[in-house]
Model the fold of this input.
Amino acid sequence: MVFEYAPTVTIRSCTGACTEERLCAVGTGGVAQRFARVALRTPLGRSRAWDAVLVAARPSGRYPGCLLPSLFTITDGASLVVIDAELLARNGTGAQMAAHELGHSLGMAHSHSAALTAPGEQPTYIFEYGDSWSIMGAAFAAPPAPMQSALGWLEGRAVARGGTYPLASLATGDALVWDRGLGSRLWIERRTDGPGPGVMLHAETGVQPGYAQSWLITPLPLQPGQTWTDPFTGASLDIGAESVTLR
Done:
């Protein structure tokens, strides 16, 4: 079902030439919110209430050019995702936006980029959407291993220094996890999706209770023959075509 919105605010964007765009209403009193509350209480033949509702909303024809920002929120204990109907119909853009917001409804936060810190310390934040290999960051790709683990989608294989470990693609449900000490864990995953293939490293930590967190610490995928070194523990990771060695 599609709902129409009227614009409520005009924003001015200046990147070279200045343009004006109008954002549509998606407030708590909006039609989509009210519909979602009804849908959540009325299963329409189901034996229990909905877990999530995805609403496609369209700007009113009286207000051409009105843009609807994507929205995720919790309504009556379940998730509500509101997506612009026109964007939803576009190949790639709409699907990525919907998957991102639905990811929030599953319990995933944004995939950040960060600089690694000493064990037990919070990674140094760089950019909120800085993970270019994650649907929760800036790519139409699978969420990283720590998020998938937090949701129960995979179990990482524990590794220790002094061993060589086979590592298949994350798409097969494979990932390695190394305990750096003091509760700091590093996930090692081989990606075949996203901007390019290779081995990625994510630090696992939590700053939003109840949300799956991950921090990308390798801005580019590691390739066979390369070695990554942890400057705080002295550990090194040698990348092979089908395995990795942690020293």
Residues 93-106 form the longest helix (14 residues).
